[in-house]
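Sequence in, structure out.
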Amino acid sequence: MKLVLALTLAATLAGHAAAQIAPPNAAGVSMGHVHLNVRDVEEQRKFWTGQFAAVPLKKDGLQGVKIPGMLILFRAQAPTGPSEGSMMDHFGLKVPNLAEALKRCRAAGFNVHSEFKGTEGFPNAYIIGPDGVKIELQQDTSLTVPAIAYHLHYTSPVGEQIALRDWYAKTFSAVVKKRGSHDAADIPGMNLTFGTSKTPPTIPTKGRVIDHVGFEIRNLKAFCRKLEGDGVKLDVAFRKIRRAGIAVAFLTDPTGTHIELTENLDKF
């Protein structure tokens, strides 16, 4: 019996570790990563591996973990504030059993911010992880893995969320849709949710615990040329990081969310 359980666990972890980010859309775009500023890298790693069975990255010089659908990267730098209050309030995961996930979080001393029925009609909750990173959990009983990436949640003034959604649709060929009652758009591997607030945050993400989000781009050099041709200003132009075998560029969306574009980061 112990051997059967060990083999089952090994198979589950192997499949989970091998999970890749989604294939790109026709424009070459898919979800890549979220990048956190953290006080203690080991504390963050322990949180993600202990609560969501995330798999640590093994690339020299790259600190982080992976779950199906995205990487979560760590920079050893004290954040200027939590995610709540910045332009990206939180990001969301799906879990197979919300009650069990919340029980683990509480037992480990993490704050369950609130429990509620989500906009799609399923049990949801907010938890606050190390450094004030806010995470929304949504129950999906069909899952066969401990957690998967689900959505990024932007917050805009009432009436301005549509313009931001349309910018992502134009810039990254995101497919416009609704997520429950929320205005949203999809790229492969991630839903982009555009929430509203009567007293919206005005703080850009750069420096906060969720410093930036990353999209993986096929043929990044050509993609950057197209962006610049369309009048999009890059904060950091296309460049190759040869020792890491990747290419990167940076830009900022119209409301202050910092975005990294990468090529070949998905191989980690």
